[in-house]
Amino acid sequence: MKKLVFLLALTFSTAAVFTSCRDDRSGVEKAADDIEDAADDVGDAIDDATDDM
Questions:
Q1: Which CA distances in Å does 50 have to 3, 8, 25, 41?
Q2: What is the model's pTM?
Q3: pLDDT (tens digit, 9 = 90+) per residue, 20-49?
């Protein structure tokens, strides 16, 4: 469980670092993309966590 929390924190931190302010998309589009990416990352993290068991 600690691995999953750490992985999620690392994923969100990485996403925050690499997000550029130069994007011309609207705030809603950007938020939707960020949420979709985060959901994909969470799904991948869960898959990886269950593979280790």
A1: 11, 15, 36, 14
A2: 0.47
A3: 566 566 778 888 999 999 999 999 988 888
Name the H helices within 1-53.
Answer: 2-18, 27-51
Amino acid at 26: S
Distances 39 to 22, 25, 30, 52 between C-alpha atoms, Å: 23, 20, 14, 20
Sequence-distant (6+) residues with CB within 8 A of 37 are 15
Tokens encoding 17: 């670092």
Residue tagged 């690392």 (tokens) = 10
37 touches 15 (CB < 8 A): yes
Nearest alpha carbon to residue 8 among 33, 30, 32, 41: 41
